[in-house]
Structures are given as structure tokens and as C-alpha cells.
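Service request form, structural biology core

Requester: graduate student, group of Dr. S.
Request type: structure prediction, single chain
Budget code: on file
Notes: please return the result as C-alpha cells.

Sequence provided:
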Amino acid sequence: KSKYYVDISTPTTVTVNANAIWSLNNLFAANLADDDFRGYLKLKEKPQIKDGFWYMGEAAVGDGGMENKTIEYRWLITYDEKLPFSYVSRKEFLLIQKKRLEKTMKDDVSSSEYYNQFMHAIDNELSKPVEDLNKPAICKWNDEERFTGFVEEGTKGSFIAVKPDLSYYNKKLPKSAPQFFYLVYTIAQGDPVFEENIAGIQKAVDFKKLRAMLGK
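Core staff response, request fulfilled:
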């Protein structure tokens, strides 16, 4: 009994979202705006199929003033193991970066010589074979406007560029119809009260029943 106590709030929660992935800068069923700051969204790691559902990975979101961290575990429930987004190719990514860099160089003519090194890196990549340019764009988080080259998946501090894929959706359905569910379990690690209760919540959320609701 000494392990238990009364509290008025908890960092341990479960969130269910329909038709929105907020860890992807709020991905919705719509193309990115023409004036979008980046022109793509940042995905930390590729989702993996586990028991028929997409596991989107986990992330530490803070310690909540506790000894141990609070972790988010993210899941995606979709039609037929499809994804509502697609991967941006290296060529697409490079052309976006080139356009942004050209604007920066135009606005800051005095530093054009400094920016030339990044433009050269972009042009060098664009000259590579088609099979290379068709690969997913994986880049370091801080290299977007200072492009020096692509990196391998899993490189520390890297992201995968993605964009909404409107071919995923049944366009005949009303906007209120759920076409995917995004679930996030936020769990405070190392606390027996939170860990016992979140196990009950995880059992109560039926992924198969949620998938049966898609398109309804």
C-alpha cells in the first residue's frame, strides 16, 4: 500500500485522433499549402507493421518533474495496412531546397559566395542517376537550408521527408468520417500507479474495432 497515493492529475493518458497526425506537424487529408514553410513534413522514423497495425515509434516528451521520463508510444490504424502519407523523393527534396536557397541568395546578395557551397551540393546530387534520385529523402535535422548531403536511415538527428497522400482516402465520404486513427499512449515511466492503470487502458482500446469504424 505504501506504493500508492492520491493525485489530482496524471501525465499518463491515451489520445485517439481521427484523420490527423499531430506529431507530423498536423498531417490532414489535404495537400500542403503552396506557401508552406518547408513543402514537406518531418518523420522521425519509418512506421513498422506490428500485429496488423502501424507502430509509429516512441519519443520522450519530458520528465514531468519525476525521476523517470514520460514516453509517447504512437500507433496508426489505417485501411489495409496503407499509409495516408508518402515519402518525398530525393529529387523532390532537392528541388524544394534549391528554390528556397535561390530566394535566400537573392535576398542576401552579400553572402551569395557562402551559399554557393550548398547550391553546389544540391546540383551535385541532382546530377546523380535516376535510381538514386528516386530514393526517399533522409536528411539531418539542421541541414535543410544548409544542405551538404543525404544520410542513411537511422542516423542520429535525421528525419525522413514525407507528404500527404490523397490517393489513400475515399473522397466520396463526408469529412467527418474517420479514415484513419492515430493513437498516442503517454506513459510516465517508473511509477507503479500509472503503469498499472495504463495497462488497463491499453487492454480497453480495441484496435480491431477501431479499424472496423474506418469509412463509417
